[in-house]
Amino acid sequence: MAVHRNEQLVFADEAAESSNPQEQEPWNILLVDDEPDVHTVTRLALKDLLFQQRPLAFVSAYSAAEAMTLLQQQPEFAVALIDVVMESDDAGLMLVRHIRENLHNNNIRLILRTGQPGYAPEIDSIRLYDINDYKTKPELTRVRLFTSITMAIRSYAQIKQLEANRNGLEHILAASTALGKPAGMKKFADGIVTQLCALLKVTEECLICAVLNSPDEQPKVLAASGRFSCWMGIPLTEVPDKRVRQHLTQVLKAQHHVFDNGVGVYFAGTDNQALAAFVDLPRALTELEQGLLQVFCSNIAVAFENLQLYTAIEQLAYIDPLVGLPNRNGFIAKIEQQSSQCALEPQAVALVDLDNFSYINSVLDDAFGDKILCAVAQRLQAQLANSTYIARVGGDLFGLLGAAADLTTERISAVFAEPFALQHNEPLRISATSGLIVLHQQPGSAVEILKNAGVALKQAKHFQRGKTLVFQTELAEAARDRMQLLSRLRTAFSIERLHLHYQPFVRLADNATVGAECLLRWKTDDGNYIPPDRFIPLAEQSGMMVALGDWVIRSALRWRAGLAGRVDDNFRVAINVSQVQFCEPQFVDNLIEQVNACGLQGHHVEIELTESVAADDLANVKHKLQHLRQHGIRIAMDDFGTGYSSLSILRSLPIDRLKIDRSFVSGEQADLATNGIAQTIIALASHMQLKTIAEGIETEQQLAALLQTGCQEGQGYLFSKPLDEQQFSAWLVQSAVRPG
Ligand code: C2E
Ligand code: MG
Ligand code: MG
Predict the structure, then answer these.
(1) What's the CATH code of the domain at 13?
(2) pLDDT single digits (tens) 347-376
(3) 695 CB near ligand 1 (under 6 Å)
(4) Looking at ligand 1, which atom is closest to the CA of residue 718?
(5) Ligand 1 pocket check for 580: Cβ under 6 Å
(6) 661 lines ligand 1 (CB under 6 A)
(7) Which of 11, 246, 309, 463, CA to CA, is 20 to 30 A from 35?
């Protein structure tokens, strides 16, 4: 029976003892014939036949209709032996057409038999319906039947193999594209589990787990399904099933696949990271599966490397490399995630800004600044990390997110209570100012939340340095109002809606008009005035003050030049100058240039500064003032007595005049009989040979008291309110005729 062996077709009694054909899945053969005898004979003839170690199993149908039902129920037939003439002359051919065209079963091999030669199918049908063989019944001797069946089964096996190959390749392709997409390591491992299951055709409650072997960590179970699910996340050493544990350990140690007593596959990544997966396959891998697994694994290894690269890039995008905390992107992502989760407890976000950090950075060096940032990051983590998400959202700005009950102003302050020990340096005290916002039901977008926390922080920087300020909606509204006002101010400036009023200075001894202070006025379209106390701080903060101040200087000087001949030559125009304006390196030169350009001299001009100028480099301020005075321009210290460093400034700066703040003249603290502040200032000024002028004189009594204490000049509603140019001209005429 050599011919049978060649075809891998043997009879069971000839088969090797070692394999047990009964356990092998049989080749299913469908017999379709309306003559029961044919069934009996065929079964007898092919009984005990093996192909590739697998037996044949027969299913009988006695009509084409019955065969159709059977094929519907059990699609996995390798071969159908079909009689052509049954319930009708062409019932067999109809069945063939049904199989191919309706059931779309293109795998099953078909052998047609007929009792009468006249019922043979057309050649075309044989080709069209992919019929393997056609024989008349007498032609089909036992040997011919063997040969015909063998060839049909072999052809079926080849088709199946091709199909498996194609499926496997499809899986690999799908896995490569699915896993090639950036996903977390956990998702990636889940993906491998799913794809391996599909490739090896293991059912959903499959037996796979993946292990990540990173250099710093113990290998642990990353993904698992089926009965392995309960081991998710546990270290490999704690996997209870000894066989699985040993298998995975062996794979990771050997760094290659182990297909012995279960399937263990290995995926190498970069940086000594590797993944291993175990499938508890109850059978040996076929050669085809082994080949497919090799291809699968090499594809996955590439995807795994990509994932690691992606993770590293993601780290860069979301982690601050200096302090190792999440950066602004990371913080925003976390807030967004938190907002979308509807946390049970109310959450809070805080922005913590180190005080004077840029100063420390510039006076010492950047490396020292870095050390401070790292120390603060560590302290924040040590004290808050168990309940709070911590990020570095900007240079010296840290972001905190946690339950409102935990993230309190007290806890933030406590972080900075103790000095920071920086390597080899003296312990350093660092303070920080923070803005905190409690997130309510609808917290808004992360960017909005950060903006509001920023509003609170800005406010705190202004009013509560070194402390934490909690955001209130009014804060945001106030900030919004300020922004609107600023934009209106810009427009007003550009369309020349700003103008100057002048308030006379009167010599108290003889009532003579000795000068005037120019005061900015903004009249809105509806005829209302917006007080300078409101818009000037805005202009100062936005950087607009420099241009605005320049315009004020030019206008005031032109006005003063226009008064020539109508006022005494000593008549001075006093111009308020903001600190930001004065700080400009070109300020002094510009002013002198403009004084000259208007044909004026220095003594026609006085500038009014506030004590805040002293916040700058004092030597530089002094130098500038000296320069101005050399040109005859005089300096008055405005609002004197309201600042904090009055005396020290007085001693160190070259000034001409003190302007006593109106709060000491007509304000609540101004009871001149009992309150000696104005008196003290005047005495001090006289001692230092400084001139004095009192602001805000409203009553004769105030005037009398000031006169008595030796104040030289005054300004106030008692004499005149600030006036526009025309009104001021009228005032000049009027005051000239007024008795002194
Ligand atoms: P200041 O320089 O202290 O100006 C004196 C303020 O006192 C003026 O307020 C003036 O109208 C007001 N005043 C004068 N007499 C009396 C009085 O008898 N009673 C009361 N209650 N007030 C009196 P104003 O015009 O509202 O200006 C407020 C502040 O705005 C000024 O205070 C000054 O600091 C600033 N400012 C005004 N114009 C300019 C400017 O062109 N540049 C700069 N940098 N600041 C300006
Ligand atoms: Mg002033
Ligand atoms: Mg003043």
Answers:
(1) 3.40.50.2300
(2) 899 999 999 888 777 777 788 889 999 999
(3) yes
(4) 18
(5) no
(6) no
(7) 11
